[in-house]
Design brief:
This protein is α/β, with parallel strands linked by helices. The protein is built from 11 helices and 21 strands. The strands form 7 sheets. It has a 6-stranded mixed β-sheet with strand order 2-3-1-11-12-13. The chain is elongated and about 100 Å long.
Length: 503
């Protein structure tokens, strides 16, 4: 800020505008979607672009692309948080996943085939006179007509071959099935019609993982606090954990301080997820496992989880995610869902957990039960719960973003003196005690805003002193007690058949 020098001789009032006391806490929080476009997408590869409508997402990523479908899932759950697309090229040496639908027998009566491709309903009219080849042709035509599906289809005789629109392992998560809602949901195959699907109803043969190097280089320090990452392979996790982590070059490191967290998902059976969960250990990654029989693909699970994280954290960074509904996601059939014993175990190996029809609300919609991170051990390999929950980092993010704003507003260009130094009022001089007082004031404000607690103990353990080796530096040991969440209530039901009369 400019100052009026003492040698300025022009008469009259000279007004200087000082905004240092006017600002209110500000913390920008944006969503970043890392996903594959198709060849039809016009977005520049590895270049981040803002997106606010589904039409734009379809144009930028290509209709039916992973990127466009991730946007659709996020936008269905949150519209108040800015969304940015990061088009990551498909693996150049990879292959696209494929799977076949075989019309095993022809229909005997007319009806409707309720086909689900990656969780999206495709309704196909069937005539009682259709041959198996004609049914296959209708299926392929209906799939190709639905341009926002992640596959293309081709019919040959009675076989429909579906091919993912991009190369890579993620294409293996596209599920093909029919009549998801069953008889009571009005979905049943016309009599006589029989279809066979790939093993486990999933496309197979997709190979390759993306090279994120160029994409990560474009992220910078913009406030991408919520990264949607559909990949869950160890290589993808490693490079993004480095970018968002606590290392020297990470967003949580001392030099960048731009923060943020990663939200992912993974399909798999219970035993597989239990084993896989133990292989991860990152404070900044939260992975949501889901049952193999869920029709919805992994990138839409990841996107919806990311959307709800953004919705909750922007409302307040310390709020728990429990009961939030994953709208648009189709859960596994009731008899295929994990029970509470299994879910409890999954949470103990660093996995977020979800359940359907657990808390009430809309029927047959999955809900978040616990927003666990993959962090399980400290640097010595010992069990540690310091970063167990997403809300711990989101609260620390808010605290230190606000604290840096306060300090830079109050003391942008100041001299540093020892406590007890006598100096004239109005001079830009600060001492450790002045800084300590400002830190305490800010802690009180954050306590009032529900970010931290136990201010008196904070004051007792707060240490602010001038560095003994670097005279231009103040050393601060800051001990915030971040606020916790009500996640469980243990009730002892000490019931009576009747209270004694004397009572």
């Amino acid at each position: 800020m400019a100052v009026t020098p003492q040698n300025y001789k022009i008469p009259g009032p000279n007004v200087l505008i000082d905004p240092s006391q006017a600002g209110t806490p500000t913390s920008l929080k944006w969503i970043l979607i890392a996903g594959h476009p198709t060849s039809a997408g016009v977005a520049t590869p590895n270049a981040i672009v803002g997106c606010g409508t589904q039409a734009d997402a379809n144009a930028l990523g290509g209709a039916g692309s992973m990127l466009a479908r991730q946007f659709k899932a996020i936008f269905a759950n949150v519209t108040s948080v800015p969304i940015f697309l990061l088009p990551v090229p498909e693996p150049s040496a990879g292959t696209a996943a494929t799977g076949t639908i075989t019309v095993a027998s022809a229909p005997q009566v007319a009806g409707v085939l309720a086909l689900y491709v990656a969780g999206q309903l495709v309704s196909i009219g069937i005539a009682g006179s259709d041959t198996t080849a004609q049914v296959a042709t209708k299926i392929a035509a209906a799939i190709n007509a639905a341009t926002d599906l992640p596959v293309t289809a081709a019919a040959s005789a009675a076989v429909v071959t579906c091919t993912a629109k991009w190369k890579g392992l993620t294409g293996n998560d596209i599920r093909l099935e029919d009549s998801y809602l069953g008889r009571y949901g009005g979905e049943i195959l016309p009599a006589g019609l029989a279809l066979t699907y790939p093993a486990n109803n999933l496309l197979t043969g997709g190979t390759g993982t993306p090279d994120f190097t160029a994409a990560i280089a474009r992220v910078g320090d913009s406030p991408y606090k919520f990264l949607c990452l559909p990949q869950s392979d160890s290589g993808s996790y490693a490079v993004w954990d480095t970018e968002y982590g606590f290392g020297q070059s990470g967003r949580w490191g001392p030099y960048r301080q731009s923060y943020g967290q990663i939200f992912s998902a993974r399909r798999g059976g219970y035993a597989d997820q239990i084993t896989w969960g133990q292989t991860n250990n990152s404070p900044v990654i939260s992975a949501m496992p889901f049952e193999p029989e869920s029709p919805s693909p992994v990138w839409e699970w990841a996107a919806t989880y990311t959307a709800l994280a953004a919705l909750s954290i922007t409302e307040h960074p310390a709020l728990p995610f429990q009961t939030l509904q994953l709208r648009g996601i189709l859960p596994a059939p009731k008899d295929k869902r994990w029970n509470t014993t299994q879910l409890n175990a999954l949470a103990q190996v660093g996995l977020a957990i979800q359940g359907t029809d657990v808390f009430g609300g809309q029927t047959n919609v999955p809900q978040i039960m616990r927003e666990q991170t993959t962090y399980q051990k400290n640097s010595f390999g010992q069990a540690d719960n310091a970063f167990e929950l997403v809300t711990t980092l989101s609260t620390l993010d808010e605290r230190y973003t606000r604290l840096r704003q306060v300090i830079t507003n109050k003391f942008p260009r100041h001299k540093l003196a020892n406590d007890g130094t006598k100096f004239a009022s109005g001079l830009k001089i600060v001492t450790p005690l002045i800084i300590k007082a400002e830190l305490i004031n800010e802690y009180r404000r954050q306590e009032y805003d529900g970010l931290v607690e136990n201010a008196n103990l904070y004051i007792r353990y707060l240490d602010v002193k001038r560095s003994a080796s670097e005279p231009n530096t103040v050393e601060v040991t800051d001990p915030p007690d971040v606020i916790n969440q009500l996640r469980r209530m243990n009730i002892t039901a000490s019931f009576r058949l009747q209270f004694p009369i004397t009572a």
